[in-house]
């Protein structure tokens, strides 16, 4: 049963990650002013692949436990916010909006880790790298937003 849940949660993670292919950083992002500590481009797919495996594994560990409904509800919130950030930041070029989404994502990941830890400490610990990565992403989003005050969002039809 664990492997079936793992496959389902990994599929959810990969669906979230697919927004990176739909809204690639491209020229717009390359031309933004970024801090010198910006991770190299090759690190992002490596980090996200590792994180998605840990995220799916932690959720699968919790899903088989009685009383996991609330924890999995928070998981659903964080994966939705994870999915939303890329289109907001890279698709719409909304740096401040990306920061709002990322702040909510960070809170929901911490809440997920806490809820998972209460049911299965190993599952909670498996999310610590995710918290660390979202923390770095938040600092990077904030820095890019502050360093590029003149960036205009993509115009969307009403």
Using brief descriptors, characterize the structure shown:
single chain; 158 residues; mainly alpha; 8 helices
Description:
- Helices cover 75% and strands 0% of the residues.
- α1 runs antiparallel to α4 (43-63) and α5 (69-91) runs antiparallel to α6 (95-119).
- The chain is elongated and about 50 Å long.
- It is mostly helical and 158 residues long.
- The chain contains 8 helices and no strands.
Broad structural category: mainly alpha
Low-confidence stretches: none
Radius of gyration, rounded? 16 Å
Strand content bin: under 5%
Q: Please tell me the overall pLDDT.
A: 96
Overall shape? elongated
Summed up, the helix count is: 8
Largest sheet, in brief, is:
none
Number of strands: 0
* Distance separating the two termini: 46 Å
Q: Helical amount among residues, as a percent range?
A: over 70%
Instruction: Give the SSE string.
Output: HHHHHHHH
Structure summary:
By secondary structure, the chain is mostly helical. It has helices at 2-17, 19-22, 26-30, 43-63, 69-91, 95-119, 121-125, 128-147.
